[in-house]
Write a structure and sequence with these properties.
With about 200 residues, the chain is an alpha/beta fold. The protein has 2 domains: about 5 and about 15-115 and about 165-200, Rossmann fold; about 115-160, no CATH class. The protein has helices at about 30-40, 50-60, 90-100, 115-125, 130-150, 165-175, and strands at about 20-25, 40-45, 65, 80-85, 105-115, 175-180, 185, 190, 195-200. The protein has a 7-stranded mixed beta sheet with strand order 3-2-1-4-5-9-6, with helices on both faces. A two-stranded antiparallel ribbon has the order 7-8. Helix 3 (about 90-100) links the parallel strand 4 and strand 5 (about 105-115). Helix 4 runs antiparallel to helix 5 (about 130-150). It is globular and about 45 Å long. The chain starts with 20 loop residues before the first strand and ends with a strand. The relative contact order is 0.16.
């Protein structure tokens, strides 16, 4: 199977009420922002890379420079959040806490994560030694993080996968309800991508 075979095509990232203010965390080159605008939504992108911020701005799309753990967005000012495979490269607990901070009560999150199968596939199939090592260190780093709540130092600790248990704990802590989990293909019996639709509980 190719990487594209593991992607769930029918999980939409634009399913918000018309006119909703939606924050796209890690908006990249802005393609998702365009999709949101076409769907009649009011999006703003967050991107840590200044060259990408400049590129998206040149396309006439709304974007702010920032990081997932400290969003440059006012508290309780957004109706929705999109976060597509950004959390594996963040302090996951802080990133998810920011969703709760910026969302209004009842606001929704459409999120995709990397599961263990993503890195297991790199470990066993590469291609090449560098990607096999990347898969191994990401798996080891996540296991260490799960036990100690700390990442390994330096580049070895730059990436972790998400697990259903840790995500459930964060959702409970920060007041989210899991409304939908899209079934997704696995590798070695482990999820490659995890797709969740969340709603922030009313206060």
């Amino acid at each position: 199977m190719e990487w594209s075979d593991f992607i769930v095509r029918d999980f939409s990232f634009v399913e918000f009420a018309p006119g909703s203010r939606v924050v796209d965390i890690g908006c990249g080159d802005g393609d998702q922002l365009e999709d949101l605008q076409r769907a009649g939504l009011d999006p703003v992108g967050i991107e840590r890379s200044q060259p990408l911020v400049d590129e998206v701005t040149a396309r006439g799309l709304p974007v702010l420079r920032g990081v997932a753990e400290r969003l440059p967005i006012r508290s309780h000012s957004a109706d929705g959040v999109i976060c597509k495979v950004v959390v594996p490269y963040t302090d996951e607990r802080r990133a998810i806490s920011e969703w709760a901070r910026v969302l209004r009560p009842g606001g929704r999150v459409l999120a995709a994560y990397h599961g263990a199968g993503y890195y297991l596939r790199y470990l066993t199939r590469g291609p090449g030694l560098a990607l096999r090592v990347y898969g191994a260190r990401s798996l080891i780093n996540t296991w260490w993080y799960a036990v100690t709540d700390r990442r390994l130092p330096g580049f070895v600790g730059d990436t972790i996968y998400q697990s259903a248990k840790r995500l459930a704990d964060y959702y409970d802590e920060f007041g989210f309800m899991l409304e939908r989990e899209a079934p997704a293909p696995t590798y070695g019996g482990k999820p490659v991508f995890i797709y969740h639709q969340l709603r922030r509980r009313d206060e």
